[in-house]
Amino acid sequence: ATHENRVAPLGYSVGLALDAAENDFIWTDDSGAARTMTNADRTGTAAFAKGSWREGGNRVNLFGLWSETRRGVPGPTDLPSESARRDDRQAFGYLRHTFEPDERLWLDTHVHAGRTWQNYRDTASLTPANDTHRLAAAGFQADAACAPARWLTFQLGAEAAQSRFDGTAIGAAERLNLAGMGQLCLEWLGIAVRPALRLERLRQDRRGDNASDRRTTDVASPKLSVSWTGFAPAAPYAAFGRSFRAPTLNELYWPAGEWTRGNPQLRPEWATGVEAGLRGRHRGASWLLGWYRNSLADLIQWQPDDSFRWRPVNVAEATLTGLEAEFALDIGRFGLDGNVNWCRARASGERLRYRPELSARGRAWLGIGDITRLFSTGVASPDFRLTLGADWSGDRLADPAWPDTLPVRMPAFALFDAGLEIDFPPAAARIALLAGVRNLTDTRAETMRHYPTPGRSWYAELKLGTGRSGS
């Protein structure tokens, strides 16, 4: 449920969301028998508020979010858990100011802060757990851009963020991230050249009962892209860049339990990528056809160890080479979009786990509005919108699980969804009804081994909103 009120120069919106699910769907085990999922229930509550002010070239936004979730943790179907539970609470907010006196100059600054709390407990396990994690984070970011000439635009930015992690099982850890970036855009005869550079310092401290650890990483991430926009229906582009990803605090310090644990020795991921292709746009249609190749060093990937306990590890080298195609069409009352991706992901000559070589997604929608006008009644009818979606995933390799010793090939699968949305004419309140079917063909599939996806499920939603707007 939402409410908003916008009368220039001020505006606000507030909302509340409640949800609950048993998630006791039927799944099929390796012997072909039908079984019921247990301990997978979930309840959630969320509330948000947003305020805005705009006057001349100034715009200010203030946003706050709070959420709480309680859920069961059923675990893998070959070794299910009836007692594991997890509770999460999150609070987040930011203040943002944008100053844009004209189209040649703008300055954007924002500050943000957030806190998360998580408790995981399983007192009936062979290795009982009752761990609490607390994470506090705050940061600041500023970006400025200037276009002194039609053929030149430059952008500068700086950011600082600090986070503190405190867990009952691993002690405290802190992370400080400082970064600066610069980018130029040179345009001439439809050719745009964009060199960019990001400099970053990452400092991490951990203090435990028996050990402490401090690391500092300095990173330079350059990027260069070139594109030509002289012919909109088919415009070539190319880009080259280098980047890195630091392991998350959960990846580093997740408490050691019966089936999972963190890895304090994780190193950051490093990636060098190149891409090229064609993109085009004509009237209501847009499309893209591209090729890419990413070389990664120290790729972070969750894998089971010799005792089949999952933990993140660094894969020495990995290469992802692929082709991608995208298409979208919007002609008012009808539209469709989709993409196809072929990716050859290899590490030491072997396929990376859980990465299908071929995947595809498609969606089509048809809108029917004011149908009573066909009968000259003069009464506005609700707007109807029909949707149909499809997701297809090729086969993938899965890590072995006890007592297996060899990787398992998981079969390809396709999932289909269908839905109907009804928007009633605006009145004192805005009302929308949504209903449909997920997994229309009741396909039994697993994206991770021993973690089945739900079969066919029906849903119905009611959305209520109030508010008004003014110039």
TrEMBL record:
Q: Enumerate the Gene Ontology biological process terms.
A: siderophore transmembrane transport
What InterPro entries would the database entry show?
Answer: Beta-barrel_TonB (IPR000531), Beta-barrel_TonB_sf (IPR036942), TonB-dep_rcpt-like (IPR039426)
Q: Give the classification, highest ranks.
A: Bacteria, Bacteria division WOR-3
Position of the signal peptide: none
Asked whether the keyword Iron-sulfur is assigned, the reply is no
Annotated Gene Ontology cellular component terms: cell outer membrane
Its topology with respect to the membrane? Multi-pass membrane protein
Q: Name one GO molecular function term.
A: siderophore uptake transmembrane transporter activity
User: What name has this protein been given in UniProt?
Assistant: TonB-dependent receptor
> Any idea which UniProt keywords this protein has?
Cell outer membrane, Membrane, Receptor, Signal, TonB box, Transmembrane, Transmembrane beta strand, Transport
* Gene3D superfamilies in the record: TonB-dependent receptor, beta-barrel domain
Subcellular localization is given as: Cell outer membrane
Matching Pfam families: TonB_dep_Rec_b-barrel
Taking every annotated instance into account, which residue ranges of this chain make up the domain TonB-dependent receptor-like beta-barrel?
Answer: 50-440
